[in-house]
Model the fold of this input.
Amino acid sequence: MGTNRDQLRYAVQELLNEVIEKGFHHLVNHPQDSDELNRIIRDASDELNYQLMRVDSHSHREGSRAMDEHYAEVSRDCQLRSLELLGRLQQVQQRDIPRLRRV
Done:
């Protein structure tokens, strides 16, 4: 992710909107999983709002090392949280794949 504020905001939105979109897509096709999918979508939406708030929640001077470190921390946390949410989504998706039976 970028170190510039606008690039970071864009990257945060892309990462977490991907989870939300994939969750909605699976929800449409597999309504039986709605409880877990709704939790994942809500968690991704909450995380998106939280990470966007974090991007601007600092008192660091523009271009300072402290600001760059802050942005790097937000970037790292957002990537990890996105992967965690995608993992939860993948677990739900895999439950819906018919398993081959051994003969």
